[in-house]
């Protein structure tokens, strides 16, 4: 069964429990956040795949011994088609993607000038922020 999960600050134990310590056969990252990408390596099951969709300017580091121990496959992708987006939207509409959990922060447009610097602070753990009108 496919499961979608958003990575947050205190989730390793919860994800381990939900997957009986196996974690996920395929992990996708489309955050564009180097810290989130680096954390994602730890959520790939033995023999699993890690798919990086977004591009970041930063260097990405990971534990090579852990990567090899898990026999991980790393795939970079940036060529999504219209059909790919339609598939994702259909999965979201069908409730297969926990859209409420995907957004780590939410703020009002009127508060954006004041709160925007907090969104840039790595200590805040921002993965995706929603700005509401």
Automatic annotation (TrEMBL):
GO molecular function: oxidoreductase activity
Keywords: Oxidoreductase
Residue span, Alcohol dehydrogenase-like C-terminal domain: 10-92
Superkingdom field: Bacteria
Matches recorded under Pfam families: ADH_zinc_N (PF00107)
InterPro entries: ADH-like_C, NAD(P)-bd_dom_sf, Zn_alcohol_dh
Name used for this protein in its record: L-galactonate-5-dehydrogenase
Organism: Paracidovorax wautersii
